[in-house]
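user: At home tonight, take the chain set out below, taking as long as you need, and be ready to discuss the fold:
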Amino acid sequence: LEARISSAGGPAGRIDVDGLKAASTEVLEHARIYGDLARNGLGFGPYLEGVARAFRLAGGGLLCELREDAPQQDWFRKNLALPSTALGAAWQALALLTAGGEPLALTGVSRVLVSNGDVAAVLCQPGSDGAYDLSFLDAAGGIVARCAGVAVVPVARFIAAASVSTPQPAKAVAQGSGETADRLARELRRIAA
């Protein structure tokens, strides 16, 4: 694993969430999302069932609106930059878009940008080279965090590939500002020492 930490500014920009919802081709409600995932052997409940509804986008993406009443297992962890419900929603969006019912393996992330703010929605869009880009949005559509180049494959394919060739090191770049980035940089230095 390789990572480069920087305290540069976080992600900038705003997404027209209302426009994406209005232009969506299908709306998936909470019960259907988690029912479909469970039927495919992908159980997330109850603490990671954070998606209230998902909007399937014409360009192949998915906008996941997070539950306002999401269950919180560890109240002391609410101060995280990206709460478990937002991370869970991102993984579930990838599963809904790519897996066809198969469990996924994360094979790479090219760039991560994190700033501060409350996450209200997760936008998953096709990126380059078959990867996906994840945007974690606040209630006004402001980008709180962004993960670009998120690559996933079915677990069976991942295992088969690992048994045939020598794994290559993953490369990732994490950039953030403030206490979270500083804490992560200290932890990585401690681990490397």
User: Anything to note?
Assistant: Residues 169-176 have pLDDT under 50 and may be disordered. The chain has five helices and ten strands. Residues 40 and 101 are 5 Å apart (CA to CA). The first helix runs from residue 17 to 22.
